[in-house]
Design brief:
InterPro entries: TAT_signal (IPR006311). It comes from Branchiibius cervicis. This is Tat pathway signal sequence domain protein. By secondary structure, this protein is an alpha+beta fold. The protein is elongated, with a radius of gyration of 28 Å. Helices cover about 15% and strands about 45% of the residues. It has one domain: Immunoglobulin-like (Sandwich), CATH 2.60.40. It has 1 helix and 10 strands.
């Protein structure tokens, strides 16, 4: 019995060896994989690190001296995944960061402060804020201008990262920060 799909010797057609077939498959597979996976990831991937970075409560804390608060806000990469590898170090130094503050007496205000820190997939942003005498912060949100660049580009871009925190035991001189 002769298989019609396999060329016979002497028929003028050279048979394809398994090695030749494997070489062709090896070259074709990466193209197929890249062609099918990359567009789906590119379409859904965040465009800036500000869409990836979120506050992380563990290890985040605050201290108060007179009317000046210092916040150590831990930040991590929430949903960029491997895309974060394409961002260079993110600079969160913002000398005019705007803080939306809620005080323990339920009044609210916007107060200018500052932030400093360098991030990639994880890091700490230190914030400083001075409030009016007699006011005690219970919760705050801060809008931080973050500078970044893609590794393959020299163009520096800026996005705004919004972080919100609650202070544990706000009448004390120090405590933990809780995301929210």
């Amino acid at each position: 019995m002769v298989d019609d799909d396999v060329p016979q010797h002497g028929s003028g057609v050279r048979p394809i060896s398994r090695r030749t077939l494997a070489k062709g498959a090896a070259w074709t597979t990466p193209v197929l994989v890249a062609g099918s996976v990359v567009p789906a990831q590119a379409a859904s991937a965040p465009a800036t690190p500000c869409q990836c970075l979120v506050g992380y409560s563990r290890g985040s804390d605050w201290t108060r001296t007179d009317n000046t608060y210092t916040f150590d806000m831990n930040v991590l990469n929430s949903n960029c995944g491997l895309l974060s590898l394409f961002f260079s170090v993110v600079n969160a130094d913002d000398p005019t960061a705007a803080y939306s503050v809620t005080y323990t007496d339920s009044t609210a205000a916007t107060v200018n402060g500052s932030t400093a820190g360098n991030l990639l997939a994880i890091g700490t942003i230190t914030g400083t804020l001075t409030v009016p005498a007699g006011k005690t912060v219970s919760r705050f949100c801060v809008a931080i201008d973050v500078s970044y660049r893609f590794i393959l580009s020299s163009t520096v871009r800026t996005c705004t990262l919004q972080l919100c925190w609650g202070l544990t035991n706000p009448t004390a001189s120090s405590g933990s920060l809780v995301v929210g």
